[in-house]
Amino acid sequence: MNFYEKDSNLYILDDDDKFKGASLAAIEETVTETKVVGLTITPKAQVFDTLENANILTEDEAIRKYQIDGDNGYTFPTTTVLIDAITDKSQSTETLEVTVVSNPAVGATIGASSGDGTVVTVSVTGNVITITRITNGTATITVTADVTGYTQGSTTFDVTTTDEIVVIEDVADVTLDSASDTVDVVTTPLDATVTASSDTESVVTVTVLDHTLTLTRVSDGTAIITVNGNSAGYEQGETTFGVTACGAT
User: Fold this and answer.
1) Could you give the 3-state DSSP secondary structure of residue 175?
2) What pTM, to 2 d.p., does this model score?
3) Per the structure, how many domains does the chain have?
4) What is the per-residue pLDDT across 169-201, written as a single tens digit (0 to 9) for each?
């Protein structure tokens, strides 16, 4: 027997160069079932094109590396499709895309299902899963991968859905060297309700009109201003900035 290795595939030919089997379905255009032992074809014109620059292995190397059974006609073990682990996800947007990586990837058919369709639903295009948020909660997503000649592979991950958070753009620290000053606050969504508070009102007080903060100096010193944003269907957003009050007249 002659053992050829290329691109993680093992090909077995007999001493007359007759094809005897292969570890992966890399030449399925040449034979209908690459894992059947004893097929007799003349492979030089077909298989040898695939095996150009292939490594030649000894029988012991082939048995050890590819776990073939030399006592039973070089039968190949059942191989399971491998899927890279997918970390648990937190989803606040309407949809979330997750890319599935399988081995082998060529010829893989990816499937997915949601353990709770009232929380999220899933659809698959190629190797990309689109998760659509329905309501808040947690659902387990089961991912499968099928490849001809392999045992189906599967993995799971959890998706926890929450409301979107109001985003408040960072506000730069302020030096308040006059009696008062204003600061504009930008939120997403734009119509979020803004509130603010000072941690040291003996130094600086703050009032809010729409998205404009008015800072008023009470005495010299420093204070931290906390800004919150609220909107229906969103979690509250928050940011802080510092104020140094000095030298007001």
Assistant:
1) strand
2) 0.49
3) 3
4) 999 999 999 999 999 999 999 999 999 999 999
